[in-house]
């Protein structure tokens, strides 16, 4: 049985879900970002218990098909930007369409209608958060970061960074608190 979970965007979320499934005596086959597959069918009491436990952890069960698809789009983007070393060499639109087996125009229209921003804007927000993270770790310089995130140039990355954050990358590095937005809040 497949179950879709909203706000499940990190490895820590996956650990929380696994723990809750174990507590309920449920056996999982797959625990992925936004989606789990369990061996059993859920009883009403198990469903309610899982729903309550997930809500306590800031996660939410989803039943609406449109909401599930939006969450899948978000999870593909989060995985693509934050959890792979190299972004796909094909257009993001082709990548998302292939991963979800839907026409990109349909996905794009649905996403914009529900979220109020385009998929491209959502990708940019996540790329900027990834830039912040990579700058905080100070393992890569800005040239290496721009290459890794497939910006056409350091100038392009810097311009986009300033447009989103109001700061240049250099100004951001000088900040003491270096504010980042949690992935689930984007």
Your description of this structure?
59% of the residues lie in helices and 9% in strands. It has 186 residues and is an alpha+beta fold. A four-stranded antiparallel sheet has the order 2-3-1-4, sandwiched between helices. Helix 6 packs across helix 8 (154-165). The mean pLDDT is 89.
CATH-scheme architecture of the largest domain: Orthogonal Bundle
Cα Rg: 18 Å
Task: Tell me what portion of residues adopts beta-strand conformation.
Answer: 5-15%
| Rounded average pLDDT | 89
**Largest beta sheet, briefly?**
4 strands, antiparallel
The secondary structure category is: alpha+beta
Brief characterization of the structure:
With 186 residues, the protein is of the alpha+beta class. The chain has helices at 11-23, 44-56, 65-82, 92-100, 104-115, 119-137, 142-148, 154-165, 169-174, and strands at 2-6, 28-32, 35-38, 60-62. It contains nine helices and four strands.
């Amino acid at each position: 049985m497949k179950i879709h979970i909203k706000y499940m965007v990190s490895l820590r979320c996956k650990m929380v879900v696994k723990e809750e499934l174990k507590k309920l005596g449920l056996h999982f086959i797959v625990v992925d970002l936004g989606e789990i597959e369990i061996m059993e069918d859920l009883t009403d009491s198990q469903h309610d218990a899982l729903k309550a436990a997930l809500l306590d952890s800031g996660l939410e069960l989803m039943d609406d098909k449109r909401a599930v698809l939006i969450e899948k789009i978000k999870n593909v983007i989060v995985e693509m930007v934050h959890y792979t070393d190299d972004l796909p060499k094909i257009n993001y639109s082709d990548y998302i369409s292939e991963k979800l087996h839907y026409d990109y125009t349909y996905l794009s229209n649905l996403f914009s209608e529900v979220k109020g921003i385009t998929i491209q804007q959502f990708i940019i927000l996540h790329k900027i958060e990834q830039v912040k993270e990579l700058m905080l770790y100070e393992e890569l310089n800005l040239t290496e970061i721009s290459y890794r995130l497939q910006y056409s140039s350091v100038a392009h990355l810097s311009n986009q960074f300033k447009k989103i954050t109001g700061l240049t990358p250099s100004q951001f590095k000088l900040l003491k608190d270096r504010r980042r937005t949690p992935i689930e809040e984007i």
